[in-house]
Amino acid sequence: MIAPYFVVIPLLTAFLIVIFGKKGERISGFVALIAAFTLLVLSLMLFPVIDSEGTIVYEVSGWKIPYTIALVIDYLSAFFVIMISLIAALSIMFSLKYMKKFTVNRGYYALFMLLLAGLYGVAITGDLFNLFVFMEIALIATYALVAFQGEAEHYEAAFKYAIMGAISSTLILFGIGSAYSLTSTLTMMQISSNAATTGGIYLLSAFFLAGFGLKAAMFPLHSWLPDAHPSAPSPVSAMLSGVLIKVLGAYAIIRVFYIVFEPSAIVNEALVVLGTISMIVGAIMAIGQKDIKRMLGFSSVSQMGYILFAIGLATPLGFLAALFHMINHAISKGLLFLDSGVVEENEGTRNMEEMQGLSDSVTRTSTLMGALSIAGIPPFGGFFSKLLIIVAAIASGRLVYGLIGLVVGVMTLGYYLGMLRRTFREKKTGSRLAFSIKVSLVILACLTLATALLMIPALKEGFLDKAVESITNREAYGLLFGAGD
Amino acid sequence: MNLYFLSFALFLVGLYGVLTKRNIVKVIIGAAIMGYAVNLFLIMVAYKSGATYPILLPGQEPQLMVDPLPQALVLTSIVIELGVTAVLVALAVKIHSKYGTLDLRKIRRLKE
Q1: Which of A98, A260, A406, A433 has the fewest other C-beta atoms within 10 Å?
Q2: Is the peptide bond preceding residue A379 cis, with omega within 30 degrees of 0?
Q3: What does the alpha-carbon distance between residue A95 and residue A109 come to, in Å, rounded to a whole number?
Q4: Residue B20 domain-assigned?
């Protein structure tokens, strides 16, 4: 019975924030914060609940499974739900003070909650068309949030993002239509148990790969990301780069290509090659950037390349590395975008050449930790996940790709060190940070170190291995079709 | 089968409009045409020649009905397209007021 709350709570909160209108202007942030932390607690309960009761299956409005939309939370969904809740709660905590400068805060929090409802929905739904609907809910909220700051270039970025998003959504809908005419069902578990394959049907694979690939900022379709993500307010950038591209892109790719349909060699190969290219392109483009948030955006393209590459290996170790890198990247990129917001506030510019190093020690330290984690320096979590990706590449015989991953890792370290040097030139007396901003930065900075603990065998078995198990064990997912009570 | 190709051709017409037109409004119309093409495709998936409406009344055979599910999908997808188009048009209005033009070639304030 826990499943529907993940959609109900954010939708209800969005509704309440809007309905209280001007009177609720001041409390809207706190309402959103309470909702986000409730969701965080609920999502942390998911793993124990699945341990004791098995995969959570909820049939919407009481109809039996083939006739209804099912919400299904297996370990993989739970993993992504935890990731969403974590970044969302801290971003909202950061927003409390940061978003004070804008006049219509309630619109911001309502849209943020709508975005959350869409993201949770994508992560927990068991129906292909429902996946599309929740994806559109998240995306429409995102288009508005990208344009939220209201300058000319923000509208331009939002328009570009919205048009590309509309194209990819149409492609996905075309793919869903094809999948329906192929299998006569939209319930994912039923397609999975029918052992349908996309392998021979190149058109279907192409629709889904192009559609979800655009959302994951895969190489030829990545150009919207470095425009859209920096244009949003910093806490939203943290949400977009940290979570949205992973849930709408990587999670959907894993779910559709590896669990719902049988894995096909050609999709694996496409993910490996395109992932590697986005890795390289993102890193090369990031080196020359002067705008700190644009640089972080290109870095996201590069890191998503690592993740898609690891997914494309299609070995259990590859999936483990991909999931582990996703949580590391979510935390460190979320942290870096929040930091960039503070830096922009202090310096009055996003151009790294003009920065004078006015930030305080909390911002300096947390940026350093986030940057080192992404760049893959031990003992941060990012080191272990990047190492795992390279080991997985070598273990499946792709030595050259492993070497490319290593080289791009060095490039990543290079451009992040350049960013640190230019952003924090010399130590000056920094401005003081608000308490809520400081807390969210410190928690995220600690988490960049704490994720390394997930490599300890006991924690790895309890958390990451279970999520990987639900990817590799397709039969268990198909059996859920008959298991609905 | 030819009808499927026609709906795919309509899809490509929309894509062509999105990719080549310079006017924001025409780009939005292109995106809308892509949506219509997919809706037509979904309706065609459900279509059976000689079948009747899918309401289970006494004396009606389920085999002689069209598939109702894609029709429900099309209704949902029309609503979603309405929302997306509304957002796109709102952005276009804002862009026009900020840049004073709807020509995409002149709307280039983002850095390369």
Answers
A1: A406
A2: yes
A3: 9
A4: yes
CATH of the domain at B78: 1.10.287.3510
- The CA-based angle A115-A116-A121, given to 5 degrees, is 100
A-chain residue closest to B33, CA distance: A170
DSSP A427: -
What span, in angstroms and rounded, lies between the C-alpha atoms of A163 and B80? Answer: 14
Do the Cβ atoms of B88 and A163 come within 8 Å?
yes
pTM of the model: 0.93
CB–CB contact B34 A167 (8 Å): yes
State the total domains in chain B.
1
- Chain B hits for A181, CB-CB cut-off 8 Å, are 45
Give whichever of A238-252, A412-426, A464-478, B97-111 has the largest mean pLDDT.
A238-252
Q: Given a cut of 50, is residue A474 above it in pLDDT?
A: yes
Q: Which of A175-189, A304-318, A349-363, B79-93 has the lowest mean pLDDT?
A: A349-363
Instruction: State the amino acid at position A250 in one-letter form.
Output: A
User: Which chain B residues contact residue A156 at CB under 8 A?
Assistant: 95, 99, 107-110
Q: How far apart are CA A436 and CA A336, in angstroms?
A: 16
Q: What is the 3-state secondary structure (H, E, C) of A133-154?
A: HHHHHHHHHHHHHHCCCCCHHH
Percent of chain A clearing pLDDT 70 (strictly above):
97
Contact residues on chain A for B99, CB-CB shorter than 8 A: 152, 156
Contact A152 B98 (CB under 8 A): yes
Q: How far apart are CA A360 and CA A339, in angstroms?
A: 11
Is residue B111 a part of any domain in this protein?
A: no
Range of the domain at B32: 2-58+66-106
**Where does the pLDDT of residue A197 fall: very low under 50, low under 70, confident under 90, or very high at 90 and above?**
low
* Cβ contact, residue pair B80, A144, below 8 Å: no
DSSP state, A310?
A: H
Q: What is the pLDDT of residues A87-115, one digit of tens each?
A: 999 999 999 888 888 777 888 999 999 99
Q: CA–CA separation, B61 vs A106, rounded Å?
A: 53
Mean pLDDT of all residues in A362-381: 88
Task: Assess if residue B112 is contained within a domain.
Answer: no
DSSP B53: -
Residues A175 and A172: their CA atoms lie apart, in Å, by 5
Tokens 């830096």 sit on residue = A343
A485, pLDDT greater than 50:
no
CA distance A234 to A241: 10
From A122-136, A255-269, B54-68, B93-107, the region with the lowest mean pLDDT: B54-68
| Per-residue pLDDT tens digits for A4-52 | 899 999 999 999 988 887 776 778 888 899 999 999 999 999 998 888 8
Chain B environment of A68 (Cβ under 8 Å): none
Residue in this structure with the two tokens 């942030």, named with its chain if needed:
A29
**Mean pLDDT of the A273-288 span:** 91
Q: CA–CA distance from A341 to each of A153, A200, A230, A468 (Å)? A: 17, 47, 10, 34
Domain membership of residue B89 (yes or no) is yes
Inter-helix orientation angle A105-124/A128-146, to 10°: 160
A175: closest chain B residue by CA? B38
Q: Which residue has the tokens 């050259």?
A: A400
Local structure of A67: helix, strand or coil: helix
